[in-house]
Amino acid sequence: MTRRFDLPDRIPLFPLPGAVLMPRARIPLHIFEPRYLQMLEDALKTEHRLIGMIQPEGDGLSAIGCAGRVVAFSETDDGRMMISLGAVSRFRLLEVEEGFAPYLRAQIDWTSFVRDLGGTEQDPGLDRKALFALLGRYMETQDLSTDWDAAAGAEDELLINSLSMMLPFSTGDKQALLESPTLSDRRELLVGLVEFALHGGENEERLQ
């Protein structure tokens, strides 16, 4: 997304297991806890309107998250908020600052993820026919469905990032997908995870 603000060195954090925001993707969120309603209210007062999506890990937080800008929000009759975050960039967590607000804030570093601030990535090695065949088998075993026409028309990055966010992988697997350096790396890992789920870890030749 187009950025018209300077990236801050401190942002609020929204720890949510199993939920990752990929570069240049969007994620819908349902906000209802009082501390996170306060976080949203405070974020909307800033120029950048950034919230850092990050996964819990053990007793702490993952080392890498992705910050999204609040690009849409609406309030329900009972005071809950439905929001949409548009990814701006991944970040590395430096230090959590506790005690300043009912939610977590942190010092972060953006310098490892300059790629996220550029244009849409392509994946020259993507074999859509093979990928869709594999996904069809996987989704059947998981009792999942998808809009294949929309998937066929999606750009490489939107397709791979959407699958990485939506498929029911473990928290650790989703974190690994988030941390993949390039779109091709993410696609290769995604394919490996799907094959592992289908074949129980048997040695199979993976799609490249």
UniProtKB/TrEMBL annotation:
Keyword Cytoplasm applies: no
GO MF annotation, one: peptidase activity
Alphabetically ordered keywords of this record: Hydrolase, Protease
Cross-referenced SUPFAM superfamilies: PUA domain-like (SSF88697)
Gene3D superfamilies reported for this sequence: LON domain-like (2.30.130.40)
Top-level taxon of the source organism: Bacteria
Residue span(s) of domain Lon N-terminal: 11-198
GO BP term, pick one: proteolysis
Protein name: ATP-dependent protease
Species assigned in the record: Paracoccus gahaiensis
